[in-house]
Amino acid sequence: MSPALLWYGDDFTGATDTLGTAARAGLRALLFLRPPSGAQLRAAGPLDCVGLAGSARSMAPDAMRAELAPVVPLFRRLGARVLHYKLCSTFDSAPQVGSIGVALQTLRAALPPGTRTAIVGGQPDLGRHCLFGNLFARAGSAGEVHRIDRHPTMAHHPVTPMAEADLRLHLALQGLERLALLPWPALRAADPWEHWQRLADGAPDGVLFDVADNADLTRIGPLLWREAQRAPLLVAGASGVVQALAPAIATAALAPSPAVAPARGPVFVLAGSLSPVTAEQVQAAHSYEKLWLDAPALASEAAYRAQAAQRIAALLRQGRHVLACTVAPQQSGPQPLDARALALAGGALLAQVLAAQPLARVGVAGGDTSSLAVQALPAWGLSYAGAVAPGVSLCRMHSDDATLHGSEIALKGGQMGTPDLFERLVHGSA
User: Fold this and answer.
1) Could you say which DSSP state residue 148 is in?
2) Per the domain annotation, does 29 fall within a domain?
3) Which of 127, 250, 260, 407 could be joined to 26 by an S-S link, Cβ 3.0–4.6 Å?
4) Does residue 218 register a pLDDT over 70?
């Protein structure tokens, strides 16, 4: 039996959120960290959804095209019906970095002629709403909802600031100039199928769906699944895409998310996020020994990384929880160094720590940091273990390395999680 859906996550944190969304909906799902071999697919067993974690969100256009080249061949190999380009729920992207336009154009060019494209504009569970094409997002886990171009963090993002709230205009700058909008009043009509058909016929770059609340996702899902039975379908959006489609493809009853148990041993968390949300979580992490890393030295000096890894491993061997941060408490704004170089260095640090001191549970904060940190580990897949907080999944690693296989990892984007998130990794969420 073929899986119904393949999703590609444009960063690892979002990819694990989609994994959690699928698992909580009763779908058999596994997230691969690179295109899987036949043996790995056989080891995974029957799946409803297959994920592929990547880092296109931080890439320039040519690098994105190379990164996405294996996705459609895998889609064909699996025989799936829906190809989901999983993007950040805030749609932060730019023509030069993480272009959603480049991603969709690259994927669509490799799909059969006439493949339709849908863009799901919101994820209400995370406080992301799209109304008449304009995106709104909550600030933090319980903050005020702002239009995205007035959001206190996303409007000033150091790499991809959101200066335009109308997603049609935002995506037009990335090459998607022929988009249509299916607004929420039309979506709530007696039969939105005819609206979709008419719009899709005249909008080769795709149809953007408004999402005001979760009830809209329940209307969108059956419509998209009906289209996917007619022909393969390309869908862009956050984890709300899988949330919308899950009832149509679920093979098991909706199951409550398993509670996260207290950690079995010391926990190591690497925080490489500039977000005020992460800063609040670091401040509230009272169970940890906190280490403030010198970011420029970490990014450029192998000896400094090795010394930091040795120090962290020594504390962990003493049974102490360790939170290593690349952003000092008084620091604000972009750091004067290459963000990708710092994220790569964070991945190398994590790998060195785990090689010196295997752990049952780790956490990584920051989208780029999470993506590159996991790529530095000898793991090939992730399965869902539980929800640490909305938008943050605890995952079990699959690896041929016995010291890593079965270890748990939580990956979080800068905007995700409650203030006590890191404490939950230690004490559990029950």
Assistant:
1) G
2) yes
3) 250
4) yes
CA distances from 339 to 247, 295, 329, 376 (A): 39, 10, 18, 16
Integer Cα distance of 388 and 213 in angstroms: 23
Identify whether residues 149 and 200 lie together within a single domain. yes
Phi, psi of 285, rounded to the nearest 5 degrees = -85, 80
Which residue would you say has higher pLDDT here, 252 or 3?
A: 3
Tokens representing 35 are 């295109």
Q: Single out the residue in 199, 221, 249 at which a domain terminates.
A: 249
- Which value, in Å, is the radius of gyration of the alpha carbons in the chain? 21
HEC profile for 367-413?
A: HHHHHHHHHCCCCCEEEEEEEEECCEEEEEEECCCCCCCCCEEEEEC
The pLDDT of residue 330: 54
The number of residues in the chain equals: 430
Torsion of CA 211, 370, 395, 19, to 10 degrees: 30
Whole domain around residue 225: which residue ranges? 5-249
Does residue 181 sit in helix, strand or coil? strand
